[in-house]
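Objective 1b: paired records.
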Amino acid sequence: MTMRIVRAEENFSAELKEFLCAAVQRRRDDDGFRGSGGGKSRNAMDLDSDGGNRLVCVTGGVSYLGRAIVKRLLVHGYSVRIVIDCEEDKEKVSEMEADAETASFSNRITSVVSRLTEMESLVKAFDGCAGVFHTAAFVDPAGISGYSKSMAELEAKVSENVIEACTRTGSVRKCVFTSSLLACALQDNSFNDLDHSVINEESWSDEQLCIDNKLWYALGKLKAEKAAWRIADSKGLKLATICPALITGPDFFHRNSTSTLAYLKGAKEMYSNGLLATMDVNRLAKAHVRLWEGLGDKTAFGRYICFDTILSKDGAEKLAKDIGVQVEKICGSSSDSNANAEACTSNLKISDKKLFDLMSRTLRSCYHES
């Protein structure tokens, strides 16, 4: 039995509750909870407080996931500074400002050009923000599925830069880091002894398995997240990482094709072991914001697995149709069907209970505090 962040029949109720919670938070801010950043050094500030600073920075803010996170942050009353790679991306920011869903918040959106490979550039981009959402990923048009081994190394290096830059910026208190379920679920045990196993926030994928099978996207996410934790723990940065399944949603393949194809390399093995799952981009954005707020009130910590649905044969067929590939590319040939059916009825589970509990607690506490 799997758990969901928000079940389908509860969507309308959850949306209404979330809107009210955001309104309660903004009212509390207006009633005297706003403070002054004061420009104090990192050591001089209270590390458990952002001083009422409502400005946050989002790397990859013009990406498919980044846009959804920016919209969610605006709804929750935050101002957002989007890190972009080049001047040309400013046009994408302008499109966001003109979007019907964000037009009324356009005065709270700014952008800054920064190279994620350049430390000083990142420090300047983050300066003045209470924290960072690191969602940026990398693609290599020359690589297989747009993601090569060199991209995996680059992603790990950029992760180090981002977290180090956070610790060098006096205003930054927290970071929410987007990893992947692929950093948790790929383990070199041939699935022979997994009948009673659970993939959860304590699970890490096997690096050598990723290398041997040329799963470069998984390797990049794995190394990047480990690098983030290593530096955050050594420097005292408050960090939470979220490990989502394959990100889907409206027009997802057209808008996020490279990452989708890179994620699905090795899809047949994931499907056969009951590990091929999806996550809606808008619910994933909500989870990011909840982790951010949970870091502030100490209800969030560590890693979180995030998924909506583990794909059945019908789900795999729909996914194949959505991305324009043969279903055999995802769930194998008909000769594999018996093995797949047996695997999908095994006791191997992916657990998002930690995130589910956090999201549920949010709605309860909102009404108690209002």
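Objective 1b, second protein:
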Amino acid sequence: MPRSFTIKVPCSSANIGPGFDVVGLALSIWLELRVRVDETVSGVPQNCEITYEGEGAKDLPREADSNLITRTALYVLKCHDIRSFPATTFVHIINPIPLGRGLGSSGAAVVAGVMLANAVGQFGLSKERMMDYCLMIERHPDNVTAAMMGGFVGSYLRELDPIDMERKEIPLSEVLPEPAGGLDTGLRPPEPPYGIGHHIKFGWAKEVKAIAIIPNFELSTANSRSVLPKMYSAKDMIFNLQRLAVLTTALTRSPPDADLIYQAMQDKVHQPYRKTLIPGLTEILASVTPKSHPGLLGICLSGAGPTILALATHNFDTIAAEILARFSKEGVECAWKVLEPAYNGAEYIE
């Protein structure tokens, strides 16, 4: 008999100011896969047929060995000596996560792909073990850890053998929409070691919501990283470390201390260097404060940008209006949403 299931993966915001490549927050925009596995159907390439709606529907590939979600799933299957989907799998992708906006679209795709392989292969992998596969593909743990585990998380990676990481069988996540990696060389891909990444889930004050201001242009992670320096001064690193140490506890306290959080969300490691890529970034990040806009707790670039994330307890419309007006002066149109933490992370629903 055919079987059906759904996989849901939240978007995520990385860095949250000072926590560059360290902290991530899962948020309530959900990538959804509606999957039907039917052993009575044959003749489909890779035994997988993809349909797609939502963000990127016009541009993203429908071939199983090109689409990042199914390419990731094929990598996991091949690690288990399965060369294609084990039965004809129909995958309907519903994606409301904007692409290339700093909301973890590629991280969500990788998590969804690993969970898809686990489900169709019936491997019974835990979330912790599935994270190892995710981290072979996306080497920045902040987004994928938040998307898989949910909530507000801090994470770090162990070092891996560079020779293993260069293998062509491993998909690459930072080159959307073009496929890269995940090639079928006939060889079994390197299976990830156990415990590549480690994480801790922080608390989160129930009053705190996230306002996402989403500009209408894309900014790739690769381009956004290309403007960062190779080395930093001790002064700037200490600046970020001091604030990160405060922020991860300050956001758990109820009621939140707006002045404390606002200062703790300042950054000198990535945001100052990305101002050339995002019109008006410096002015926008300074445009709202807890004093000028009550309810605001802090403001930062979401991930690699260009989305702006403002944490707040109330007054969402007024805060968003000010940031939208600043972007408008730069000729940039934006959408905006009020989001809540996705505490449980990725979900498999039978």
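The CA atoms of residues 214 and 335 lie 5 Å apart. Confidence is low (pLDDT under 50) at residues 174-179.
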